[in-house]
Amino acid sequence: MILVIGGAGYIGSHLVKELVKTNEVVVLDNLSTGHRWAIDEKAVFVEGNLGNEKDLESVFTNHKIDAVMHFAANSLVGESVTDPLKYYQNNVAATLTLLQTMMKHHVKKFIFSSTAATYGIPSVDIITEDTATNPINPYGRSKLMIEQILADFASAYDMEYVVLRYFNAAGAYETAEIGECHDPETHLIPIILQHLLGERENISVFGSDYDTADGTCIRDYIHVTDLANAHISALQALLDGSKKTATYNLGNGLGYSVKEVIETCEKVTGKKANVVMADRRAGDPARLVASSDKIHAELGWKAQISLEKIIASAWNWHQNSAKVTN
Ligand code: UFG
């Protein structure tokens, strides 16, 4: 049985859809930002908190857990600056409670959702796992702290783990049953699509004076199903013992500027966006693009889905989402 913590959230729910095809799955989620409807019905659902020893104890006692995948974190960079306590409490302290419970029950295999935000403002154009980590906000620091804790636990307690550093997750499940559904929404692609559906007046581009070709920020967008498949490869490597510890970037290896993303959304939807130039958003690095060569070489995983297809899947979801969520 695989325990997925945060399996009702955006990335966790897409992972569960893939994982239930080959594994028994139990999802623990407090539904604070995730959705009950997003959890695949083949998974067992337990409502509870990752930082609550009693909730964890009952999951580990009632199920024979072989490995844990942990998606339950707060992940808004701006909020982490104004409310760092929330980030250190939920992302660090609660995760420690989870790790402690795992050890008590002799569960040693762990997959951890980390982030490109651990790199801060990188000094290279293409980020590898060897690029220095120097996070510039509490969100990135909270994730890096757990990475460091995992390395210490591996040395001291034989913990086995794979850390996956996501770049910009986007897109939706192929059937449009589930997709990105945050409240409030802060991410670029859903904001553009909501605008093109008439749900927002315009799109603000945060900064047009960056040191990039068109002056807007460059990101590496990766389809959420590509991300899910990377987790399945990582889980397989832990379960068959071919990996004991590893850290991998997950991206497409291609950078797109905010302007290029807007243009691609216009092309995919056939609609014209009303774009407003705005000030830079605090904490945004100019460029974050991943090399995912390491996971390709070691586990054979590679992102498959292009930006156009990512946006097309998100567009299907946005058109369908009112039916699913109501
Ligand atoms: N942007 C706009 N207008 C908007 C929203 C976003 O111009 O209305 C810009 C941002 O300034 C940024 C780019 O679009 O340059 C992407 O922004 P997102 O908010 O979609 O994504 P981020 O790159 O800020 O952050 C995401 C995750 C983080 C993670 C990071 C790693 O939300 O958790 O990717 O790359 F750390």
Rounded Rg: 19 Å
Shape-level CATH architecture of the largest domain: 3-Layer(aba) Sandwich
Q: Which fold name corresponds to the CATH topology of the largest domain? A: Rossmann fold
Note the gap between the termini: 31 Å
The helicity comes to 25-40%
The portion of residues forming beta strands comes to 15-25%
- Bound ligands, each once: uridine-5'-diphosphate-4-deoxy-4-fluoro-alpha-D-galactose
Assigned CATH superfamily of the largest domain: NAD(P)-binding Rossmann-like Domain
What's the level 1 CATH class of the largest domain?
Alpha Beta
Provide the structure class: alpha/beta
Output the helix-strand order.
EHEEHEHHEHEEHEEEHEEHEEHH
Q: Which strand order do you get reading across the main beta sheet? A: 3-2-1-4-5-6-11
Envelope shape: globular
Number of helices: 10
Number of domains: 2
Stretches where pLDDT is under 50 for at least 5 consecutive residues are: none
Mean pLDDT: 96
InterPro entries: Epimerase_deHydtase (IPR001509), NAD(P)-bd_dom_sf (IPR036291), UDP_G4E (IPR005886)
Family: Belongs to the NAD(P)-dependent epimerase/dehydratase family.
Domain NAD-dependent epimerase/dehydratase: 2-251
GO molecular function: UDP-glucose 4-epimerase activity
Describe the protein's architecture and organization:
The protein has helices at residues 10-19, 53-62, 77-82, 84-104, 138-157, 188-196, 224-239, 258-269, 293-299, 307-325; strands at residues 2-5, 25-29, 44-47, 67-70, 109-115, 160-166, 168-170, 203-206, 218-219, 221-223, 245-250, 256-257, 275-278, 287-288. It folds into 2 domains: 2-170 and 221-250, NAD(P)-binding Rossmann-like Domain (Rossmann fold, 3-Layer(aba) Sandwich), CATH 3.40.50.720; 188-219 and 253-325, UDP-galactose 4-epimerase, domain 1 (Alpha-Beta Complex). The longest helix is centred in the first third of the chain and has 21 residues, at 84-104. The protein is of the alpha/beta class and 326 residues long. It contains 10 helices and 14 strands. The two termini are 31 Å apart. The structure holds uridine-5'-diphosphate-4-deoxy-4-fluoro-alpha-D-galactose. Uridine-5'-diphosphate-4-deoxy-4-fluoro-alpha-D-galactose binds next to helix 6 and strand 8. Uridine-5'-diphosphate-4-deoxy-4-fluoro-alpha-D-galactose (UFG) binds next to helix 6 and strand 8. Its EC number is 5.1.3.2. Pathway: Carbohydrate metabolism; galactose metabolism. It comes from Priestia megaterium (strain ATCC 14581 / DSM 32 / CCUG 1817 / JCM 2506 / NBRC 15308 / NCIMB 9376 / NCTC 10342 / NRRL B-14308 / VKM B-512 / Ford 19).
